[in-house]
Each structure stands twice: as C-alpha cells, then as structure tokens.
Amino acid sequence: MAVTTSPTTTRTERPAEQPRPRARRRRDRPNVVGAVLGVVWLAIIVVPIYYVVLTSFSEQGEFYTRNPLVPPGDPTLGAYRQVVESGIARYFVNSVLVTAATVVVTVVVCLLAAYTIVRSSRRFVRTSYSLFLLGLAVPLQATIVPLFFMLGQLDLYDTLLAVILPSIAFAIPITVLVLVNFLRDIPRELFESMFVDGATNGQILLRLVLPLARPALGTVVIYDALQVWNGFLLPLVLTQSENIRVLPLALWNFQGQFSIDVPATLAAVVLSAIPVLVLYVVARRQLVSGLTAGVGR
Amino acid sequence: MTATTAGAPGAAREGARAAGGRGAEPSAWYLAPALIFFVAFGIVPLVVAAVLSFTTWDGLTPPKFTGLDNWVDELSDPVTYNALWLTLKVIVLSWVLQTPLSLLIGVFTAGRQRYRAVLSALYFLPLVLSAAAIGIAFKALLDPNYGLGHAFGVKALVQDWLGNTDLVLYTVVLVIAWQFIPFHSLLYQAGARQIPPSLYEAASIDGAGRVQQFFSITIPQLKNTIIASTTLMVVGSLTYFDLVFILTQGGPGYATRLLPLDMYLTGFQASQLGSASVLAVLLVLIGLVLATIITRVSGFNRMTSQQEGA
Predict the structure, then answer these.
(1) I need a labelling partner for B34 at 20 to 30 A (CA). Which of A270, B103, B106, B288 fits?
(2) Quick one: which H or E segment has residue B56?
C-alpha cells in the first residue's frame, strides 16, 4: 500500500464552490484507453463466434470463395438440416440423461455430506472433508486409464453409467466445498432450536437446510451441469457405441464424418451450444458465483 | 499427498469446533454416499494407476506384472521429456499471456459503468462453451484455405497455423488463452470489486493518476487473487487435453504432444496402458508438487486473512 493517505485533508471542510476537486476529476474524465482496449477485446471474443455462426448458414460450395466475415448472399439452413438428419437429437438426449443423473446424485449426496461436515466435530468427518478438498488438486485426466480398467472389470464399459459414475466423483469436491461454505453461515441457534423441539436430522435437513440453501444449490446445480454437459474426455475413453454418444463427442465425430463440409460441422457446434447459451442468459449470476466459488475467499 | 488446497483443513477444523459440542450431531452415515462415490471413482483410480504402472497391458488381454519395465521405458523415452518440456513451455507462455490480460479485463469489468456491464456479458461467453466446440470452431477458423485469415486481406494471416511445427504451439497457447482468460478475468473482477473504494478516493485526492493507482493500489490489493489464479492456471495447464486433442492430436509430429496427450495417445492409440499409467502417476505427482510449491512460496495459508484487514 504505497499510497499515502492523508486523512486530514479528506475530512477538512471545503468552501462550497469547489467540492472535492480531484475526486471529481477522476469521475469526470472517461477512461478512453480502457474503453478502446475493451472494444479490442470484445472483437477478439466476438469475431470467432460470429465467424462460426455465419459459416454455419453458408452453402457448402460457396463459403470457400467469399470473405468469411461477409454474410452469405443467400443464407441457407441446409447445414442444420444435415446435422439434424444425422441424428443429433439422439446425442442431445444422451447428454441430458448423463447430465441430469450426475447432477441429481451429486447434489443429494453432497448436501448430506455438507450438512454433516458443518454440524459434526468427529475426526472421521474432518478427515473426510480434507480428502474431498484434496480432490480439487487431482487432475481428472490422470484417472482415465485406471477408470477404463475398473469400469471394464465392472462390465460397465460403453454404457452411460460409465460416464455418470466418475462424473459424480469429480463433481463432489467443489460441490461439497460450495455447500459447506454456505451452510456455515446458517446460525447454529437455528439448528439447535429445531433439535430442542424434537426434530430429527432428517427433518432439520428438509425443513431448514433445504429451503435456506436454495441459492447455493442453484449455484452448484448449474456449475456441475455445465461441467458434465461439456465433458469430453470421459465419454471419449469410456464409451464407443453410437447410440450412447454424448454431444461433445458427437461434435468430434461430425468433424470426421463431414470433414470437408465445414458449414455442417459448425452448425453442429452452434446447435450443441444453444442450451448452454440459454443457461448463460437466464442464470449468469449463479453460473458466475459457481465458477468463483473455490477462490477469492 | 498433503496440504495442497490452501487453508481448507484449518477452516474445516474451525467450523467443526464451532458446530460441535451439542447433542444434535448427525450420524457420520450422512457422509457415506458422497465419500463412497468419491473414493471409488476418484481416489481408488489413483491407486489403480500406480498398480497398473507396474504391468504390461494392451487393454484386451489381462494385465501382466512386469515390474519396473514401464517406468524404465518411459523415463528413458525422449518423447516423455519432450512432453514434459512442452508442458512446461505451455505453462509459462500461458501465464505470461493470460495473467496480465485477465488482470486488466477483470479490473475493467469490475467498473460499474453500464457499457462495461454489457461488455462483460459478452466477454464471459466462452465460459459456457465446451472445449470440443471451441476446438472445432478454431480448427475451421485457422484453416489456411477458408479460415478467418482471408477476411482481412493480409497475407501474413493466411498461414497453416496448426500444421506448421514452428507456429503450432503458439497457436495452441492462444486458443487456450481464448478459452481460459474469461475465467481468470472473472476471478480478478470479483477480487477488484472487494477493494475498498476509499483507497482510490484517497489516492486521487493525493493526485495519483489512473496508472499509478493501478500499480500502487489495485495490484497489491489483488495479491491473493493473483496467487489463486496462478495456482489454478499452472495446475490447470496439466489438464489441457480436450482442446489440444481436437486442434492437433498432439501433432504435427510431436510438436504439441503435451503430457496428458502423451498419456492418452500412449494408452489408447498405442495400446500401452501400463506405460500410460506411468504418465498418469507423473501427472498427479507434478500437479501436487506444483500446487504445494505455489502455496508454500506465496505463503497463501498465512495470507488468507489479509483481505479483511485491508
């Protein structure tokens, strides 16, 4: 903190004609450099997205020749038709199934765990919490070979369950962390007074914790859902059949299948992104708080 | 394998003490479902990886115990060292590129001006896109035949960005930055909003300009955020898989065969799952060591309370 603050000058009464001259100057002078750089960065983010959307509406043959940033003369939905006909609906349903199953199980088991961690002082519970937190530092990537082995042994290779089970495990650490941080802020007296009134832990969970924790639950549901929805590595390694393919993997396959048909590939990209874009528009706040949950405390 | 997640165990203890004592404690069984899932599919695989690293396994026939063979092979293989070197390069380049930009964008979007709120809604868009979607989009966009380079009529922009051995690693670092800068900006935005405005008011009364304020207030105040973001970035660099896999599959040649990619290709393309397990163990160890070093060097544990005091 190298800035020398001089409390004496801030508190001194000034003549009414010139109130706080310098503090005002800062407000009045617009940050031109900042704004210009802000617009440059905007272009860096938006131009690729614009390129993808535009190309997805182009004719297969035409887009090689025109400027990629000029809208096509006659936009076509041909690429989208092609993607829909090649069965993207199936992959969409698979992604929904995997995401919903993972999120429901994760949130239920983590709420139970977080409640226990907040309310219990047992050594076993504390050790378990440290173990969960350790999970934040372990790269998921490192487990794919052993998971491939284990799920093969369990006869689960090439099933949706093979993706769901590890996805739950990898969502647990951050979910527990967010829920524990939130439940800690519930005053202890609330738990105790319910307990004194004869409520069981199950009743406390249902009638007190569940309603109070709703914002935190929203955050973890959205965060976990996004991670699973976008997951690529687990389905890549643990599934194979076309009928259980999830969206990110389908994108990768479209790329091979349509190889030179770039508009179709990019139309698939756009279609796969629509659900998350809707989520982004509707629930940006929860999403953002989920993303920053583990940090900045 | 201890103390990698900064400050957490201490916090757990403190919370447990605060909550404990009275009778209403829930049974530890409430913890069991989460613990079982996590141990079975998060912790056990790490042990299995260590075991598999001592076997030869092609993925079809049962693994055969072959002692240290894989370890000797992998640790004498130049491909492994190339992967380690590339990973280190990507970590350093990513940090140098992403940290200053994220810091500036984060501080910029922390401002309450309306236009900045609109801009940041667009800035953070890549947060929700899958690595698969981003990878495929950039693969098209960077193509020398129909890519974005043609839009500007500048010859230098029409390159085989992903096919040129000299360029490809930098291209990959740039695409990674496109994907991850929004996340780190978000961290800095949250951090910058917690800086007490009184510090800036006092500084501008003293005549400090914007640049001076940035260096003497913003950066010191964001020290914790910088450390947190750096930790996530460095440890996260070990997991850059999806994006690089889709963009280059580790090529051309070995030019972008980073450690996680080396593991995948060794395991699932060359069918040497024992050797891939060696690389998996290395990946975990490096991750834990890096996380520990960063938290130690920066004294993150000791500093967690600094922000409240400011």
Answers:
(1) B288
(2) strand B55-56
